[in-house]
Amino acid sequence: MMLRAAIIGYGKMGRIRHEAMDRHGGFEVVVACDTVVDPEAAIPMVTNPLAVYDYDPDVIVCSVPNMMIPDVVCTALARGKHVFSEKPPGRNSADVRLMMEAEAAAHKSDASLVLKFGFNHRVHDAIEEAKKLIDAGTMGDLYFMRGVYGKAGGPNYAQNWRNDPELSGGGILIDQGIHMLDLFQMFAGRFTDVQSFVQRKFWTDVPVEDNAFALMKNAEGIVASVHSSATQWQHTFRLELYLRNGFISVDGILSASGSYGTEVLTLALNRLDATGSPIPNPEQQELRFTEDKSWDKEIAEFHAAVVEGTPLKCGTSQQALDVMELVEAIYAADPEWSNPRQKTSQTATE
User: Fold this and answer.
1) Same domain for 305 and 162
2) How far apart are CA 340 and CA 309, in angstroms?
3) End-to-end alpha carbon distance in the chain
4) DSSP conformation class of 124
5) How many domains does the chain have?
6) For residue 41, what is the domain's CATH number?
7) Which of 242, 278, 314, 331 is 20 to 30 A off residue 25, Cα-Cα?
């Protein structure tokens, strides 16, 4: 079944989604909306988001800045359209709840409407393989996880809308670290205890964090630590999962920029000595991935959910709420960051 699609927000991500829909073959992109009309665009373009509905789309792809996401998503659902939205899912958990209310209201008239958020890291090949290995059970219980996800600011970093908390909701944690937090919750579920340090060290002319360190524990005692950084001068993605019978790590993540390197999944199974104790430095096996299929997998899942009614596994509104609440918990756990008076004092002394 061919679905008519409208893209609201035709920048980098909107075009990536357009390309993925074209590769899938089950979508006809009939219109795109952006603040400026691209004269070379191969499809009709408009500047008013409401004008896309004149083209009678079946689905809305939302690729706008964080502060605009709730309005675009809620409007689309109220008009009976399926929605695929980028992450982060707004600026805070209140934004997510607003969209969930619109989703629930829409379901009263059409229970088949689909709302999906684009957390594509869940469907990277290396991450999926790690999940399969853990779910198979042969590696035993998951004990703890470590994650580092960082980059080097970038050109015009201070002027980017992502560093205006009124527009974005936060800094590097909500922009990039949210992916690592989403993966943590995919592997371990919700975290109940959170400790953190949230800092602004290098980019002192912006009102958001450039580093966030957090330590989390869930009800089963699984611990996770994350470092989300805009001062990781060497672009880095590393996820480590330690289990009773060995460990799994993912180094590198394939991305549109290509700056995080090849995805390498490393697997090591413990060897035991005569007493049954693990021998240090077990033999490791590597599996390398060189093609990013995550965009295509997300679009395929969205199409199947709309056309066939297949339940979403990734990017549900509940998952979006869970991870946004974890982001907020990390901000709140550092009293020097979450207290506005202390936050202002910190800025003045830096």
Assistant:
1) no
2) 46
3) 57
4) S
5) 2
6) 3.40.50.720
7) 314
Closest CA to 68 of 116, 106, 35, 27: 35
279 in the same domain as 138: yes
Could you report the per-residue pLDDT of 276-312, keeping only the tens digit for each? 999 999 999 999 999 999 999 999 999 999 999 999 9
Distance CA(128)–CA(122), nearest Å, equals: 7
Residues 108, 198 within the same domain: no
Residue 281, beta-bridge partner list: none
Which tokens go with 127? 């991450």
- The amino acid present at 126, given as its one-letter code, is A
pTM of the predicted model, to two decimals? 0.94
- Residue 342 has what pLDDT? 42
In terms of C-beta density within 10 A (0-12 exposed, 13-18 middle, 19 or more buried), how is residue 108 classed?
A: exposed
H/E stretch holding 215 reads strand 211-218
Judge whether 350 lies within some domain: no
In the block, which residue shows the tokens 């360190």? 213
Tokens of 275: 């007493």
- Residue 91 is part of which domain span? 3-120+296-312
Alpha-carbon Rg for the chain, nearest whole angstrom, is 21
CA distances from 246 to 38, 221, 225, 263 (A): 52, 18, 18, 20
Q: Does 115 share its domain with 145?
A: no
User: Does a structural domain hold residue 60?
Assistant: yes
Would you say residue 341 has pLDDT above 70? Answer: no
Q: What is the pLDDT of residues 218-254, one digit of tens each?
A: 999 999 999 999 999 999 999 999 999 999 999 999 9
Residue type, 205: D
SS3 helix, strand, coil % of the chain, rounded to 5?
40, 30, 35
